[in-house]
Model the fold of this input.
Amino acid sequence: MTQSAFADKINVHRISVANYESGTLKPSFEMICKIAATFDTNIGWLMSGGGNMFNTVDDLEDDLRELLEFLREHPDQKKLVLDVMRVQKKAIEGMANAAKPVRKLKPRTA
Done:
């Protein structure tokens, strides 16, 4: 995929993508989330380069085990965890909607 095509999908200028690749510019956390949602990419990999590039079933199972263990140890935190999850879900959905291409207006003809 070209930088231009990538930039179009996340609604930024091509030069921003070039700067992300070269390390000249660091994407914001919001941009990382947008990239992850657009390309179904692992946020941890985007931030650190570690782990799998794409989310796998094993990653999800590990995350679920960790979450269940946490909730068993801290049952009083269940409501907080669910609230954070719901807020995050809405934020990701909002970023995904913002990433959809904006319909270009047709120029007026004389």
Notes: The mean pLDDT is 82.
